[in-house]
Write a structure and sequence with these properties.
Helix content: over 70%
Number of helices: 3
Number of domains: 1
Number of strands: 0
Keywords: Membrane, Transmembrane, Transmembrane helix
Structural class: mainly alpha
Radius of gyration: 16 Å
Length: 105
């Protein structure tokens, strides 16, 4: 596979998630935006039980994806293609963890 596409995928996959999670956390913590949590039902994830728990989960995933994104940028600049591929794989595994975490009731 072309190395450009791996670099692009590694940067975009981690960057979008890093931005979305960190933006939501910063918006709730510092910008005073309201968090809308789903009512406590059988279908909602466990972290919708309290605002503090929700913000902690969002922050953890935001930091995880930010670290992956920073590593992807660093290894792209240093032209270490194997490490960029590793960052892409870790990003995909992290997205899987996000989905599993959302499925926990």
């Amino acid at each position: 596979m072309n190395s450009f596409f791996i670099k692009f995928a590694a940067l975009v996959s981690s960057g979008i998630f890093a931005y979305s999670y960190m933006r939501e956390w910063l918006g709730a913590k510092w910008l005073g935006e309201e968090i809308v949590l789903l009512p406590n039902k059988d279908e909602t994830p466990y972290f919708h039980n309290s605002e503090e728990l929700y913000l902690n989960v969002i922050l953890i995933f935001g930091l995880l994806f930010t670290v992956i994104f920073a590593a992807s940028v660093y290894f792209t600049v240093k032209k270490k293609e194997k490490m960029v591929m590793l960052c892409f794989v870790v990003s995909m595994l992290s997205i899987f963890v996000v989905m599993v975490n959302g499925a926990i009731k």
